[in-house]
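seq/struct pair 1
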Amino acid sequence: MKALNRRELVIGAALLPFAGNTVHAAVPLPTMTVSKDPNCGCCGSWIDYLRADGFAVEVVERTDMDRIKSELGVPADLQSCHTARIGNYVIEGHVPADAIRRLLTEQPQATGLAVPGMPASAPGMDVPGARDSYDVVLFGAAGARRYARYQGRRKLAG
């Protein structure tokens, strides 16, 4: 995984006022490493979604997903099917791309983000007709709190 260097962070921060919704084009993203069960189709769909949104993704297929979640500090009540690392953060489940970008920009003191379970309308699930809303949860040593709320790929609040 490549962390952003100081120069990239300074340039990215300087461009933020001009970026509007194109922040992801101005700031290079670190490579994301996704651990997933080889038999999980929705994990592959989420990875395709992230790649289409500009993320570089490496995939590690493994059958010991409970162990990786435990090692990375994902609480049992926040777990989903796949677990990723990007920069210094853990991404658990079907987290929307813009929530990951926000995390990388804001850099809060946290372990990472999670979308618990497998909401039918979340990126990578994309069940036709699903309109459920779901929370993206920021978690870490200080506990867990809502970071954003979505319906499908549309941000509702946060």
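seq/struct pair 2
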Amino acid sequence: MYESRTETPLHSRKFLGRLLIHSGVAAGVLTFSLAGGMAGYMVLEDLSALDAFLNAAMLLGGMGPVNTPKTDAGKLFAGCYALYAGLVFIVTAALIFTPIVHRVLHQFHWDDED
């Protein structure tokens, strides 16, 4: 997927394209996660779409839920979704920073022996 140390580093335009692809995948993961969280809150806690969005977005952002869950199923969902949201944060950060870190390391290790 990425160039090896014997290949020249990507041109800036291609690197920005790679960064946009990674950012798009990260945005897709966040969108999917937000939609799943909203659906869970709407079904299990009978929240409106706006309240479900707020709770799911706050958990994905690491802030915690706004509405306290009232049902046992809602409490179980909120706990599992909070754990999931922590993993989504790590995955999203990795997706965005991987091309940047690779480019920096590639600049240091590139063999320019032509």
